[in-house]
User: Fold this.
Amino acid sequence: MSASIDLKDKLMSAEEAVRRFVKDGDMIALGGFTANRNAMAIAREIIRQERRELHLVVHSNGQAMDILVGAGAVSRLEVAYGGNGRFAPTCIRFRKAVQAGHVQVDPTHKAIVTDNPFSPNREPVVLLPALTPDVALIHAQFVGEDGTVRIKGLTFLDIEQAKAAHRVIVTCEEVVPSAFLRQDPDQNSLPPFLVDAVVQAPFGAHPTACHYYYDYDPRHLNMYRQVAGDDKDFRTYLKEWVYEVADHEAYLAKVGVSDLLRIKANSSLGYAPGLERR
Amino acid sequence: MAHAYSSKEMMALTAGRLVQNGDVLFAGTGLSMLAATVAKRIHAPQAVVFFETGGIDPALKELPLAVADPRVMAGTCMNSGLVDAFSLLGNHRLRTIAFLGAAQIDPFGNINSTCLGDYHRPKVRFPGSGGGCDAASLAFGVILFMQQERKRFVEKVDYLTSVGWLRGGNSRREAGYKRGGPMAVVTNLGVMKFDEQSKRMYLAACYPGVTPAQVAENTGFALDLTRAEESLPPSEEELTVLRRDVDPQRLILGPAAE
Assistant:
């Protein structure tokens, strides 16, 4: 079985994945949900490569959406919920950008209400065409050497987003032998033929959570909340945490071992029990 | 015996009292999570909590701070996705009760969690519907949490995020909603319900020490006060379960009452 040949074509750095698969003006589906399993390593790389005029389509986001909007990369946004739980009931840069008219918030499609032809009473139904994003950005726990993707915990809308998109970039905590994933295939989330780029990025969702690996990082998210409201402070944040950080490994070095250990998940529970979250 | 308690504690417990055994509770962040958890522990042990994100009946050993908190996916009977969760909300067999909050509410329980001012260039942008519109449209019933303020209880909401009783009377059914509708509005001053016929909000209960006049003062539309009763204060058991078991760090409850 030529399993590992598949992944050799797809396994690449975040720099290459963004360079090849994310263009100015793209419609981008962000996976994850608020402070959980956002593709942060890719989002930071998109900012470093100065992508512009992006059209984000998300359900409920989150940290990735907020930094992309804050960095000026986004011109259009379709979102059901722009919040980050208790860390930001309304996402901070998102709120500012919408209030200032810096992002367009119209939907691509307007829903149509029409009579249901199958209903004897002709009750109304709502019709809405699907979106076809240019690229979906997903962070997963496992990718197999054959390219199979396994997401642990809740999948949110990631699977639907990946199926709808032209291209899919998956960052992952670990690349594992395909036999490991094929032992229990009902646990798997995406088949290899729906994945275009795989980037190995441990802690790639930081500061959002990744079930069984790490919790959300209250320290970083609280710090973000302090700085994100002020334009100058936010620019400093981007400078220190995105622009002047060469890559994901350098980012993690900056976060530091103590903070990563603090949020490390308990293997049984999936989160960090007793984590100081105030 | 008199116990000091905060208005948040009263709101969580009041909403919890509205939960019945066998309800399937669609919980959001914050107070709704407290209400659902405390109800389960006291009088509705067969009530099942599920989150919009797809975690069903989690262990909840630690309090989740968001519907996508990893704590909502631990010890569940099933983990699924958003699409599954929303279809569960609307499942015809289930008495799904959703707890929702909003920035504004009108006399028929229609709510706004999107923005103040023009949608394209708002004065204030809120997070948006999230699962709120889905819940308001599909659930068996909705319980709303609101702060009682004139600027929140308005004749007409700036943006219609989620439909309640629409224009009152039978208008919700006629618009095509098969079921659902708001059952109660739980605020920091009392509880409002909706008239059987007109579907217009009226004052059902005031918390101990609160007068109907106070509630009216803090409501930006005419409110029927004639049916208001006084709520029972929290019991010792309710407060103990809430403070000791459900939110010991007061992550959602915030500061204790004086």
About this structure: The beta strands of chain A are 27-30, 54-61, 74-82, 112-115, 124-127, 135-144, 149-150, 167-176, 197-200.
